Amino acid sequence: MNPHLPRLFESVQPLLPANLSEASLKAMTSANLLHIHAPLRGNDLLLLVFPGLISLGVKAELVQVSAESRWKATLRDRLRVTPGVSALRLSAPLPEPPDPPEAPPRNAYTHLFPEVIEPVVEDLITITAVEESLFYFHRDKGETETIREMDFSRRFTHLVRLQRTGERNAPLQENIREVLSRTIAYAAAYPDRIIRGGEADSVSRIALSAFLKERGTRDRSRTGKLLRKAGA
Regarding beta strands 85-90 and 121-131, do their DSSP bridges make them parallel or antiparallel, or are they unpaired? Predict the structure, then answer.
């Protein structure tokens, strides 16, 4: 799993169901799919992590840090309801999403993963408080640091706005089918970015395998059989 993702999940955690396990969070957002040394890209968030959060009842979207956006109001508003707000720096602007093909391809997900150079997440922090033009933040639950608003707006490109959807989500077992579809499409498009057999990814591999086996035993349908096989 990419090391930036635990920082993002720190901000997400207070909005998730109280009984949701860490293993379920990582599996439903495909976090355990990503190779630990593969850079986290903007589209990994938009096409894997954020849709996974939706299935868990949390809407996530990127808010650009720019003079034209209301990012400061967004930051203060979110800090009233969550203990931390994630901020990140992308290496380049996000490309426009591709237009859906006129005729759906055999794999309806393939058009979501264009072969283009995509911006990389270069830094990700958790903002915990704002006092006038001074922002308090930390990385990996470490020591609190401060940064001036002017410096922040130069160094970071986006906030991650999180909010509960307010809708009753489908049972986790049903949402797994959608996660599997995304995972299969992503793995086919980017085989060099997924977990491997070496020691570096052993923690993610073991956790993902255990989750698939556990969920597979609860589902006696064809999907459950596939889950058990994938976790073997």
Answer: antiparallel
